[in-house]
Write a structure and sequence with these properties.
- The protein is elongated, with a radius of gyration of 17 Å.
- The chain has a four-stranded antiparallel β-sheet, with no helix packed on it.
- The protein contains no helices and four strands.
- By secondary structure, it is mainly β.
- The protein has one domain.
- Residues 1-27 have low confidence and may be disordered.
Length: 105
């Protein structure tokens, strides 16, 4: 069985440990705020990361082992907001194929 799957996840996060862009401190405390489909990129933000890659035959595990193989394109974009926070949007577009008699997702 093959189905199309697309999901848009958006989460602003402080990437202080990964991207110390203009903070001036190596000991910045990260602030995590998570939400889904929260809207558009904050006005005045600067695009700092734009990555697209293809994933093939990625095992999709469940409670009783692998139940499907996923093939998708993943697009990750990160914007730095004017207040120093980061806004991240990740998009998945692809398909998955289940195994006959799979016991779980």
């Amino acid at each position: 069985m093959e189905k199309t799957r697309a999901a848009i996840l958006a989460a602003p996060i402080a990437l202080a440990m990964l991207l110390m862009v203009g903070t001036g401190s190596a000991h910045a405390e990260p602030v995590y705020v998570t939400f889904v489909n929260a809207g558009s990129v904050p006005q005045g933000s600067k695009l700092v990361l734009n990555i697209t890659y293809n994933v093939t035959t990625d095992e999709d595990s469940g409670f009783v082992g692998c139940w499907a193989l996923d093939t998708y394109t993943k697009h990750v974009q990160t914007w730095e907001e004017t207040n120093g926070n980061f806004y991240v949007v990740t998009r998945y577009d692809g398909t998955f194929s289940t195994f006959a008699e799979a016991l779980s997702p």
